[in-house]
Structures are given as structure tokens and as C-alpha cells.
Design a protein that fits this description.
six-stranded antiparallel barrel; Thrombin, subunit H; Pdz3 Domain
Amino acid sequence: MLKRLWLLFAQATTVGLALLFIVATLRPEWLGGTAVMAPTKQVTIQQASVPDSARVVALKTYAEAARKAMPAVVSVYTTKEIRRAAPTQDPLFEHFFGDRIPGHGGRVTGLGSGVIAAPEGYVLTNHHVVEAADEIAVALADGRRVAATLVGADPETDLAVLRIDARDLPVITLGSSDALSVGDVVLAIGNPFDVGQTVTMGIVSAVGRNNLGINRYENFIQTDAAINQGNSGGALVDTAGNLVGINTAIFSPSRVGGSVGIGFAIPTAIVTGVMKELIAKGRVTRGYFGIEPVDITPEIVAALKLRREQGVVVRGVQRSAPAGAAGMEPGDVLIAINDTPVRDTPGMLNQIAQLPPGSVARVRIERGGREMDLNVTVGERPVPPPRR
């Protein structure tokens, strides 16, 4: 009897301990005390809650944006006559080539893209697409092919405006490139390799790209949308189908020039102003100082014992130019123009370019550790020589 009682007691104790362990683990508050737990490191994880509507937006088609923009994007065909060199008197050349020198003479054709920017027939494209062309033709998306005339070109931003005489033209809607952010989806539209109108998609990889050595005035939108030969002058549009840039260049390590996911477009913030000036007077007027600038570097700071690390050092001055006439000297550091700080060379060039020729600019400089102001009568920037 005693043995049976002991067995029942042992079983009851075992069951009770098991229940106590379960309650202490899952519901410690039932015990009316404070559970003692091993100390752990607290980690806060921010978990996004993605509603179904957001998933639909992320996966939606961009067909509507393409449908809106594509009719206003055209192909630009150019023809250039290459003059033959004078006949050679070399009998060896005459034996093999007669009066022709190989590689000289004949007609050269070129291909690019463009964007109809106004119902009056104005077409935006790149300067390098139509440079030195004898004949220019524009092929519209609806199949029409018409002759075009050059209204004006700006080599320093690589923009040009053409004019075509045609009715019922589809016109692109200009958007704001200043509203673009890295990661925004963009579409590139053009005629690569003359295969026909093509749309590629990518994102904005960077904004404000400069110091690339492509143009004199640079503020590029960088994108990974596929851009190839023939896309130059074509449209870069946002997801609403509005123009945000003119495709102008690609980075390619090969001579073929295939896309490697690094393309550059001129933003509409620049395009709009240049286009208006070209239409109004056939050229772009910019301010001019006549200096050779160089960015401040740690080496220059140490060599010239400068007190600042921002600004532009004047490496050279043309004595007959506006800056030289105002007393600017090599070694001066440009600090501000009309109270706007000068931070680097690209920014300074844009500041000067926006000054009206004939106006007087107040330029603050540092010379020999002392700041002073110079009054520079702004000149007009000379037209750059044509590229060869």
C-alpha cells in the first residue's frame, strides 16, 4: 500500500513540474511574479509593409508613356560631301588608283535622332548629328520623310534646332529635369543603328554629371537605359512620357560604341533655354571673362598657402579680355560672382555664361591672403572653332 502511494505521489509531482515549466515558459504572468530571462541583445528590424497597390505600381507597364512620346521622336539623316584631294603626281599611286586617293571624296551619310518640340516644326537634336551637313532629312514616326533646315546650333552644349515644313505634327511635352532623382525610371527613344524606332528602359543613375570632357558646359543626366549609335538627339522621357533630356553620348570601351549601361543626356533645364535662343537668333549668347581656371586642390592650397579649399584659381588671364582689363591676375582665387559663391570650375563657367554681355559683374577674389572686389565688364564668349 505504501509503495502504491509513493508511486502516485511521484507521478503527480512529475506532471505538476511539467505543467509548471510549460506555464512559466508560455504564460509567466499567470504565476503572479517576474520571470527571470537570460539577457539578450536587442535588435530593431524595420520591416516594410507592402500593400497590394504598391506591388501593382512597381510592376505596371510603361506602354502609355511610350505611346505618348514615340510619335514626336524622329530619325535624322544627314549627307555630307567630302571633297577630293588634288590629284597626286606620284606614278605609283596613279598606277593603282588613277586620279583618286583612297579614302577621299564621295558622299558620307549620318544617322541620329531628334524630337519635335513645337508645332511650328522645330526639332531638337544634337549638334554633332548635323554638324557640317550639306543635306538634312527627317523621317517621322508616321512614315513621312521631309527635308529639314538648320535653324541654329550650339556646339558648347551639343544642341541644335532644325525646322521642318509639315502639317499635324506630334509634339513632345517638356518635363522638369530638376525633379529627377537617382532611381527614377526613364525611357530612351531613338533609332539605334537605323533598325527603326526603339524604346529602352532604365533608371537615373546620377544627375549633375560634369568634368567628362564631352561638352564645354556639362550637367548631364546619367542613365543605364540602353543608348547606342543613332540614339543621339533622341528623347529621354519620364514615366509620364514627358521629355526630361536629350540623349547625347555613351561611355563605351570599344570602338564599336555599344551600350554598356552608361549613357548621358542633356537635361531640359539646359535644353529649354538653348532652344529658345537658337530659335530667336540662331545662336546662344554667353558671358565671357577670358581666364583659364583650375579647381583648388590640397596641393594648390599648400603651394599658394590659401586660407580656403573652395573656389577657383586663375591660372592664366588674357590681357585684352574683360578679366584682364579689370585687373585680374594669375594666382587670384575667385570666391564669388555677384555675391554667389564660386565652388568649382564647372559651376563658375555656368555662372559667367549666364551673365549678359555688357553688364558689370562684381567679382570677389583673394590675392596674397587679402580679399578684394573687381568690377568686370562682361564680354561675349567667342564662337568656338568647328571640330575636325
